[in-house]
Structures are given as C-alpha cells and as structure tokens.
Amino acid sequence: MATKHEQIIQYIDQLPVGEKISVRQIAKALNVSEGTAYRAIKDAENQGYVSTIERVGTIRIERKKKENIEKLTFAEVVNIVDGQVLGGRAGLHKTLNKFVIGAMKLDAMMRYTGAGNLLIVGNRTKAHEYALNAGAAVLITGGFDTEEHVKKLADELQLPIISSSYDTFTVATMINRAIYDQLIKKEIVLVEDILTPLEQTVYLKTEDIASKWYKCNKETIHSRFPVVDKNMKVQGVVTSKDIVGYDKDTPIEKLMTKQPMTVGGKTSVASSAHMMVWEGIEMLPVVDDHNRLQGIISRQDVLKALQMIQRQPQVGETIDDIVTNQLVLTRGKTKGDDVFRCEVTPQMTNHLGTISYGVLTTIVTEAANRMLRGYKKGDLVVENITIYFIKPVQIDSILEIYPKLLEVGRKFGKVDVEVFNEGVLVGKAMMMCQLIDRQ
Fold first, then answer.
1. What ranges do the domains of the chain cover?
2. Who contacts 56 (Cβ-Cβ below 8 Å, separation ≥6)?
3. The Cα angle at residue 298 between residues 297 and 303, in degrees rounded to 5
C-alpha cells in the first residue's frame, strides 16, 4: 500500500497541467496534515511535477524529458528574471523554443516572432498585443506594466505576460545562462540514469533468514543484497562474507552490515565511482529522501557509464573543458619525457589577472591523468593533491607542464608535476590517484 507521501505525488501527477495547487488544498483533498502536504509538494517540485513562482503560487507543469532539458518553461523564466506575472498565468507551464529581443520597428519585430516564442521588449503596448496574437509570450523589461486589455488577451490565449525590473540585455543574458547551465547538466550522468530499478532488484527483508540469501544467490549468481524493513527503508547490506560460517536459520538482521552507504538518484555517477573506489564497495543501494529503496547500482554499471561519458561530446562547455582543451601534448623521445603546453587565456585568471588556483589544479590534474593513461588504461580519481604556487602567472603566458611518474601500482599512481613559464618554475604539485580499471 502506498504511503501518504506517495499518494500525494500520485494525486499531483494526475492533475491537469497548468492547475494551481496549494498546501491547504492538498491537505484537505487527501485528509493529511499540512506538514505532510508541504513536504510532498516540495518533493514533487524536485521531481519536476510542479513549479513554485513568487506572487503566483505553485502550478502543475509538464515534466520535461531529459532530452528536452535545454528548453525552459515560462514558469522557470519567471524565477530566473525575478519576474511578476501580469496575465496569462494558465500558460506558465508551456515551454519556450526561442526568445526574441524587440529592439526594432514593429513590423520587423513581428517577422521574427511566432508561436512558442518569448518576446523581450520594453513598454511598447502594441508589440505586447501583436506578440500575443502571434502565439508568443511577452517579457516586459524595466519593471513596466501593460494595459488591461492586453492582460485580458493574455488570459484568454493562456500566454504569460511577465514583468521584470531588469533591463533587456541583463534579462537576455540571464535566460541564456540558464539554458547554457541546462545544457551542461544534460551531459552529467546521474545515478537515476543507470540504476537497476526496484522492480528488477533482488533484496532481502530484516525478518528473512540466511537460507533466503542462499536462494537469491543461486537464482541471481550475485552475492550482495540490500536489506529492507516492512516500510522498504534500507536497514543494511548482506554479502557472502557476512553469511559464511553461520547457520541457515540465523536471522539476516543479525548478519547484515547495518547503516550501509547509500546514494540518491540525483547523485552523479562520478561521485558514486569515487565512493565505491574509496570504500572498496561493489554495490550501492539507491534510496529516496526517506531512505526507501529505489534500486541498486553496481561497480560495473558505474564503469560502463564513465566510459559512455568519455565517448560523448560535451554540449555545454564547462570551465574544465575550456582549460583542458588548451593543453597540447609534445611527445618526448621516451615515454616519461612528454611535455604539455597551455596558453593562459582571460577565462583562466582571477581578478588580479593571474592564473587562478582552481585552473592550475585542473591543468596539473589533466596532465597527470593523460600521462597515467599511457601506463594504465582506465580512469583515475584524485585521492590527494598538494599544490605550490611559486610565482604568479599572467594572461597570455605559455605554460610548460612536466608530469613525472614516481610510482604506479595496480590500484594507485603517484605523480609529480612541475609547471614552467619561460624556463622559470612557477608551480609544483604532488598527486596521489586511485586507478579504476576498465573492465
């Protein structure tokens, strides 16, 4: 039987897109406390069922598919630009496909404005009206209002009119940045993308006995299983090491490892990989906010995902991408004589115009990563790094990075990295890395 929390989520999911909801309404409709209703609505917002807009309220929106994540809803635009909705609230759930800046004559502006667009314009009432009739929403900059008949038209057409106190350039920049951030997020693989779902997960219950483990082991050939209570909350993990030597009638609750490490669906695969390598874990239970089992991920799942990430181009370039793309390898005569060169661009500097600590960390980490790949095929997780700034490095400098392998084993590598500018030592780093074999 579904919990009250799950019943509220299911109720919200069945509401028509665009409907306004409130804590009081949900509490009354499902006969639950307002506290329970509030927590469920917040959870629904995290899952993308609803969006909360200041001075408007909480609205049921259409859940965006992952491949459509780079598109924003008008409700999200309101939040991004700190806007106020003047009309057309029923259309806040709709998605915009592009925005148009109205910095031209009316006729020319309308040639670029169509259905699904967002027209960003100042206090030009005719432009507001024309855009709505063309099927576009309107974002009025400078904190201006519009006329009442335009607001009524927006309500009729269910197309939002939003007012923001920011100027046109700032608003366009904020929206562009939000879309760009979404593009970067799109490429980040999360645990929820690779987990084995609950329906396919084999798990044990606290009241089970050791013989149940043997049965599951024979059926699945796996030796690690999460253990849950009657409410499906994870209480432990049981492995072959826990079982061996005990009678088959021994309760699982006495054998399991209690308070196991778990991950949430929104945890990145990279974080999970680090956790698994660091702790030597082969399987992690995936839980929701209430510690209820949602599925599992294995080390094999994580390795496959990491390999997939490396084969896919990044749609939205991060600072790390910009920095590492600057690194150019010059092959030495022997394997250990490789040199990396990198030009310091304005994006890599701090407010003083010298290379930032974070960028230098990225440069030495990437150089060490590339060198270690020449010795062992796989990925690495930085376990420990010590960096010394010896001299400041200014914009347009050309850096030469010399990574030197001090020691490499089956599971770790130790690297010394020296950074030179015009023959002068400007930075030094010592790194210890955990190595992840690609199986």
1. 1-63, 65-185, 191-308, 319-437
2. 20, 78, 85, 89, 92
3. 110
